[in-house]
Amino acid sequence: MADALTVDIVAPDHVMWSGTASRVIAPSVEGEIGLLASHEPILSILKAGTIRVTSESENREFAVTGGFVSFDHDTITIVADPVVTDED
After folding, report:
1. Full-prediction pTM beyond 0.70?
2. Contact 62/51 with Cβ under 8 angstroms?
3. For residue 11, what is the domain's CATH number?
C-alpha cells in the first residue's frame, strides 16, 4: 500500500487492532482529527466517539470513551478506553 500508515490501537489490557491503513479519523477533544501519511506529528487527547480506520481491504470502527493518539513518522499509536457493552 503506497503511503501506508502503521496503526496500533490498544486498550489497557489488549490490542484492539494492529495493521496498515490509508487514513485514520479519531475523536479529539478539539474536534475530529483526520490522519494521512506525512501528517505533522501530533499528540492529542481523545474524547468519547468512534475511531475510523480505512485501508485498501477494509473499513473498521472502534467505539471509545477516551484515551490519546500519537502520530509521528507515519506511525499512529492510539491508547484507548474501549466502550464496554453487556455482551463483553
Report:
1. yes
2. yes
3. 2.60.15.10
